[in-house]
Amino acid sequence: MSGYAKIVVAIDLSTESASIIGKARAVAADGAEIHLVYVQEPMDSVYLGVVPYGPVFVGMDQVEGRLRDELNDKLKALGVTYDIPESCQHFLSGTPSREIHRFVEENGADLIVLGTHGQKGVQLLLGSTANSVLHGASCDVLAVRVQEG
Length: 149
Fold this sequence. Notes:
- This protein is α/β, with parallel strands linked by helices and 149 residues long.
- The protein has one domain (4-145): Rossmann fold.
- The protein has 6 helices and 5 strands, in the order E-H-E-H-H-E-H-E-H-H-E.
- Helix 1 (17-27) links the parallel strand 1 (4-10) and strand 2 (28-40).
- The protein is globular, with a radius of gyration of 16 Å.
- 42% of the residues lie in helices and 25% in strands.
């Protein structure tokens, strides 16, 4: 097997991100492009249905902005640690599976690597990001089992 040439590594910026990046590198061809992708789901969509109208709380936009800055700093730090250029670090906003699919299509990736936890309880009923990505992907998907934290 010669390896994959353009890999999208979908991470959640948790401590497991390092092992997911490691698996991506293990299957990468020499000179492969590895793209780190983090998708922040907007807070108003997370709480949709809890508060039917208006923002969840006053100042939500500021909290979301600070969170975005902190998460973007984590993404950049991973890029530095794993020598992934800033042009291959992508901070997206939206529904994770939808944004990952869109990114893969627009960039012609041939592999998606992402972490997965064992599904239990409500997750089993609602599905997971990994499951949604797998079933809508136009390329190969490598799901890396990560330890429960």
